[in-house]
């Protein structure tokens, strides 16, 4: 079959894996020389056996899934090697002694001292204000669902404790933030306004939002907020829900020492009564989940 006609008959990933399987045979057909070369007369005569396009897509997704699993295992192995090297360096040079209590390095002491001046509830309030300041628009409604997803992603970027966020039908959602944490604090301090209409709760800027933004600068979180805006400014609520859901699933799988593959993530979502219905939605298609796994890997360096 000629490659010029493949678009209507072959899935791209199916073709990629087929050619990967035939690598040795292709190299053997190459013209001899310092570097073997292939030309159209050789490649154009390759016979490719293929099922229906729909089945090809499924085969391609399965093989992509295996590639992701292998990549995840390699990354985990590399991290363990680095951990071992670090421990060898510290233990074998006497930097860490097992029979003595170590003093905290000065950098850690400074971080602890800073943390005593605020708590995570107030931090959430400040970050919600920063989200409203950056994402609010008179043209487009900013609702609670979007604010919660953006707060989740921002906290993930900061490698903060994520225990407040639970598996809910709308994705990772923190009742704590809504009822006794960041949101009520932000409202009471007039960092934000929250009104209601037939679409739900609407977030807008409060009279004292400048005070919250001052804390963002003081606590050196401005770059985190800029990252959030650069990555998600024009994302829809559904896209944010997909991203936050898949990321939480990846984190939960890592806790169980499981690879974040399409198969494992779908099984996790399917087994959760709050999340199972997500798989019936188009946004949670296999291809979208695959792409989001890769996106999470880049965003959070997993």
Automatic annotation (TrEMBL):
Domain Type I restriction modification DNA specificity: 8-75
GO biological process: DNA restriction-modification system
GO molecular function, one term: DNA binding
Gene3D superfamilies: DNA methylase specificity domains
Keywords: DNA-binding, Restriction system
Record InterPro entries: Restrct_endonuc_typeI_TRD, Restrct_endonuc_typeI_TRD_sf, Type-I_RS_S_subunit
Segments forming a coiled coil: none
PANTHER family: TYPE I RESTRICTION ENZYME MJAVIII SPECIFICITY SUBUNIT (PTHR30408:SF12), TYPE-1 RESTRICTION ENZYME ECOKI SPECIFICITY PROTEIN (PTHR30408)
Protein name: Type I restriction modification DNA specificity domain-containing protein
């Amino acid at each position: 079959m000629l490659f010029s006609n493949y678009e209507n008959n072959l899935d791209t990933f199916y073709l990629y894996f087929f050619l990967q399987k035939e690598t040795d045979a292709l190299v053997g057909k190459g013209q001899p020389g310092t570097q073997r070369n292939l030309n159209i007369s050789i490649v154009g005569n390759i016979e490719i056996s293929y099922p229906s396009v729909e089945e090809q897509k499924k085969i391609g997704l399965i093989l992509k899934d295996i590639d992701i699993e292998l990549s995840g295992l390699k990354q985990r192995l590399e991290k363990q090697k680095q951990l071992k090297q670090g421990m060898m360096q510290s233990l074998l040079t006497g930097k860490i002694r097992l029979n003595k209590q170590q003093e905290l390095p000065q950098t850690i002491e400074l971080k602890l001292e800073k943390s005593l001046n605020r708590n995570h509830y107030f931090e959430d309030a400040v970050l919600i204000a920063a989200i409203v300041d950056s994402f609010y628009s008179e043209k487009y409604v900013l609702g609670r669902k979007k604010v919660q997803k953006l707060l989740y992603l921002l906290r993930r970027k900061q490698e903060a404790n994520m225990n407040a966020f639970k598996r809910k039908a709308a994705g990772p959602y923190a009742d704590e933030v809504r009822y006794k944490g960041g949101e009520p604090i932000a409202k009471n301090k007039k960092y934000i306004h929250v009104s209601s209409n037939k679409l739900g709760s609407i977030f807008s800027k409060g009279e004292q939002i400048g005070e919250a933004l001052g804390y963002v600068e003081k606590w050196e979180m401005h770059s985190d907020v800029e990252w959030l805006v650069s990555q998600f400014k024009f994302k829809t609520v559904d896209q944010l829900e997909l991203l936050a859901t898949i990321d939480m699933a990846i984190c939960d799988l890592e806790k169980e020492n499981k690879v974040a593959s399409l198969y494992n993530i779908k099984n996790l979502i399917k087994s959760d009564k709050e999340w199972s219905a997500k798989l019936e939605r188009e946004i949670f298609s296999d291809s979208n989940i695959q792409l989001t796994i890769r996106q999470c890997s880049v965003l959070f360096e997993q």
